[in-house]
Specification:
Layout lengths: L5 E8 L13 H8 L2 E3 L2 E2 L6 H10 L3 H4 L5 E6 L2 E6 L5 H9 L8 H5 L5 E5 L3 H5 L8 E4 L4 E2 L3 E2 L10 H19 L3 E6 L3 H4 L7 H26 L3 E7 L5 E7 L1 H7 L11 E5 L3 E6 L7 H9 L4 E6 L14 E7 L1 E5 L5 E7 L12 E2 L12 E4 L7 E3 L3 E2 L3 H9 L16
Parallel strand pairs: 1-10, 1-11, 2-21, 3-22, 6-7, 6-10, 12-18
Antiparallel strand pairs: 2-20, 4-5, 8-9, 11-20, 12-19, 13-14, 14-16, 15-16, 17-18
């Protein structure tokens, strides 16, 4: 075997809110917490949607800096606002052609290309996967497309389904091939569960809890593999986390229809005002020619019971956003503490999505600022993190990149986040 090395292994169980961690459903995560530092105040980004979170994780910067504003966004193209689904595998390359950059901040893949490299195994949307490395500095394995450096297709693509069985197959390959043999400086396993089932079954239901147990088992496989690699001498920082939580959808609001009814948008197909639903939030874009409508839209939004919080252009910085591409308002939909049929607290309204995506009343959703969607979990095991401790200090998705870089002893200049290690 090669000489011992410093490495980081990261496991993301997409959508797992921290109050779902319990001995019955997640024994491996409970066991890890006993040997690591658990962060009880860990928060996601806004919108708490996986594609925006992925870019934030990868860059250590907020959307205001990296410019990927959400799961669904608008871009200014040829003088017109054009709506886009960021989940498409080609979106970031299109964004690069339109705006001059895929992301406006360097990714971990770029920073580590000359320092041991990075390999990502990812089973969420292709757009979220490639937000980690849109310009081909490392390896990204995804069921839709697997690319190596230079964005060259690999000879051994990841062929799995978007379900618990697919996550299991991906995890087994990740453990054997990536952790034990290829050994990059940064290895990331981003599982699609339990997020996938939570969008398709009620939170706390038998179906959701069964998949939660399977997600925990995948984390356990990686934990065991890391222990074996450490026994051989490698100094491995293990990060096990989620990117956001979930709340139960209590209702769906068609914000564009509301704007049309109020006389603030011309028609469903007009490009004067575009409201991009991002789960339990919405990003509202205003064409520059319609500046005269800004004040009226502001007044309208603040008067609506479905708008839990409204951030106008001058307040976007409070949530890590900026006025890129005509972004005029961000809305976090109204949420409450009511329980669902399985006794799980936390409900939120959802913004109606585009492209005929289904509205799943009573199922899980995320994207806004609700208590539970902003309650992912984070446990870190390794140098700089005391075993069996709980930290209530502020910790954010944006802090993970500088934490990774500090362990690898690679400079992390120009990030918004801060390393979480307690050692100097």
């Amino acid at each position: 075997m090669e000489h011992p090395m410093r490495r980081v292994v990261t496991v993301i169980l997409d959508g797992l809110r921290r109050d779902f961690i319990n001995p019955a459903d997640t024994p491996n995560l409970v066991r890890l917490a006993a040997d690591a530092t658990r962060f009880s105040a860990f928060r996601s980004v806004f919108p708490s949607a996986t594609r925006a979170v992925s870019a934030t994780f990868a860059t250590g910067c907020y959307p205001a800096r990296h410019t990927l504003q959400g799961n669904a966004v608008a871009l200014m193209e040829g003088g017109a606002l054009v709506a886009h689904d960021v989940g498409r595998p080609d979106f970031l390359q299109h964004k690069r052609a339109v705006t001059g950059c895929s992301l406006a901040a360097p990714t971990l893949a770029e920073r580590l290309a000359a320092h041991g490299g990075s390999i990502l195994f990812n089973n969420v949307s292709p757009g979220a996967a490639f937000a980690h490395d849109p310009d081909g500095f490392g390896h990204v394995y995804h069921r839709a497309l697997s690319l190596g450096p230079g964005r060259v297709p690999v000879a051994d693509p990841l062929l799995v389904g978007l379900d618990a069985a697919g996550d299991r197959a991906m995890t087994e390959r990740f453990v054997d091939e990536i952790l034990h043999h290829r050994r990059p400086a940064l290895a990331i396993l981003w599982c699609g569960e339990p997020d996938h089932i939570q969008h398709n079954a009620p939170l706390g239901s038998p179906e959701q809890r069964d998949v939660l147990r399977q997600a925990d088992a995948n984390a356990g496989l990686v934990m065991e593999a890391v222990a074996r690699e450490r026994a051989l001498g490698d100094d491995i920082l293990l990060i096990v986390a989620s990117d956001h939580g979930h709340e139960t959808v209590s209702g769906v609001v068609d914000i564009e229809a509301e704007l049309i009814a109020a006389g603030l948008k011309e028609s469903e197909s007009s490009g004067d005002v575009i409201a991009m639903g991002n789960g339990t939030s919405s990003l509202i874009y205003l064409h520059p020619s319609q500046e005269s409508r800004r004040a009226a839209i502001d007044t309208f939004l603040r008067a609506q019971s479905w708008a839990g919080a409204v951030f106008a252009a001058d307040a976007l910085g409070e949530i890590g956003q900026a006025r890129h591409a005509g972004l005029a308002f961000a809305v976090a939909m109204a949420s409450d503490e009511e329980v669902n049929a399985f006794g799980i607290p936390g409900r939120s309204l959802a913004a109606k999505p585009r492209w005929d995506k289904p509205d799943r009343l009573g199922f899980g959703q995320h994207g806004g600022l609700g208590r539970y969607e902003q309650a992912p979990f984070l446990t870190i095991d390794g140098a700089g993190f005391a075993a069996g401790t709980e930290s209530s200090a502020p910790a954010r998705i944006v802090d993970l990149a500088p934490t990774i870089m500090r362990h690898l002893r690679v400079p992390a200049f120009g990030m918004d986040g801060a390393a979480l290690q307690t050692d100097p």
